[in-house]
Amino acid sequence: MSAPIRMSAxxxxxxxxxxxxxxxxxxxxxxxxxxxxxxxxxQRVVAAYAADADECRMLLSxxxxxxxxxxxx
Length: 73
Prior knowledge:
Blueprint (H helix, E strand, L loop, with lengths): L11 H9 L15 H14 L3 H11 L10
Helix pairs in contact: 2-3
């Protein structure tokens, strides 16, 4: 298992390139909703690594698996 990437280790150029995306991006219509159990497992992992509750909520929201996210509904 590889070590997690720390944001402070990334340069401004790295962050800009990551935000722009790449030719390998997947279109929204090609994405399939997560199974409830998979989403719950992902939520647990995010919660375990988040620095605090606000960061946890933000990360879950960014991943589309927050408590207010409509998964497959």
